[in-house]
Amino acid sequence: MGDMPQPTEAMTDARHDMEICNACRYCEGFCAVFPAMQLHRAFTDGDLNYLANLCHGCQGCFYACQYAPPHPWGINVPQAFAALRVESYAEHAWPRPMARLFTRNGTVVSLLTALAVALVLLIAGALQSPDVMLRAHTGPGAFFAVISYRAMVWTAGAVFMFALLAMAMSTASFWRASGGGAPSAAALARALHDAMTLRNLGGGGDGCNYPGEGFSHLRRWLHHAMAYGFLLCFASTSVATIYHHALGLVAPYDLLSVPVLLGTIGGILMLIGTIGLLWLKILADPAPAARAVLGGEYAMLILLAAVAKTGLLLLVFRATPAMGWLLAVHLGFVLALFLAAPYSKFIHGLFRTAALIRSHVERRGSAA
Ligand code: SF4
Ligand code: SF4
User: Fold this and answer.
1) Atom of ligand 1 nearest to the CA of 77
2) Cα separations in angstroms, 167 against 118, 195, 317, 331
3) For residue 308, which phi and psi values (nearest 5 degrees)?
4) 117: domain range?
5) How does pLDDT run across 162-207, given as a tens digit for each residue?
6) What pTM was estimated for this model as a whole?
7) Which of 2, 27, 268, 319 falls between 20 and 30 A from 185, CA-CA?
8) How many domains does the chain have?
9) Separation CA 9–CA 132 (nearest Å)
10) Residue 305 falls inside a structural domain
11) Residue 166 and residue 347 in contact, taking contact as beta carbons nearer than 8 Å
12) Does the CB atom of residue 58 touch ligand 2 within 6 A?
């Protein structure tokens, strides 16, 4: 018989905390984690990974806990779960060798970003003369005078499709490990509602305990700005694709056109959300945080802010000689985001939604 793998420190901490919480149950009304926890008597690794992804890190249970440090039991649920969440992303990474990218994830995402931006700049510089890169281009097709439409679409399309496949495979693996099965339409709808409203950061109406012990909705609103801003930018690119292929309209588009309006509003929201979340993270009480995962979280927020900022700068300076280099830098950041998405904090949205679906499936099961 082969040796059983030793549980990691994060897994051991999470199991210790959940066993004490399951006896205490003081926090049972705080979020979805505690009702889900109460359906278990013992916790498998899969159960703990599921509960860790159900946790939104609101920190409410840390400040409410009479057994939190300096108590000898040292209960610190948000810290244990934050560390375990990253281990679960690595455990279900696809393809498997990519799991190692979750070690020192902040450095990995930063290097990936630097490489992607440098690569796009080098290729643009090699394929175009400095005269073309530094000249103002206007009218339909101006962007493609700098980087050809075919190169842009094939590169971004291939990387985007790979990112989608990798994220789908990782999430499916996590779903199977947490119990699998086909969820009902009602469980799906409730989970989607909870994910889209960040219900578990609501704190029963007063908000979460972030960045400190006081209650606040700020983190929830900033996260909404970032996530919905990102979705608006994605919608902008999708509409632009329809314009190009179905209507024969070639970018750049008017300031009041649908793609530009969606991209501008989305970019501003993303920038507000990411900078606000970075600011909150700097101010946050370090006691309930898992220090080892902070680098990856900072790196992803900075990358998202860079995508939004360079996109907005490109809009402002698109008719000037700065457009060529700005376009290359913006595409470099977008490429880095697609490449990093399955192997960074970005994946948490899918894992958390899967955990929310599981919690609604289990709740219906336990109520039946
Ligand atoms: S976090 Fe503390 S107070 Fe809350 S259920 Fe667990 S042990 Fe009890
Ligand atoms: S940190 Fe918040 S979301 Fe996570 S288990 Fe504690 S109360 Fe629930």
Assistant:
1) 1
2) 25, 17, 34, 21
3) -65, -45
4) 96-367
5) 999 999 999 999 999 998 889 999 999 999 999 999 999 988 789 9
6) 0.95
7) 27
8) 1
9) 55
10) yes
11) no
12) yes
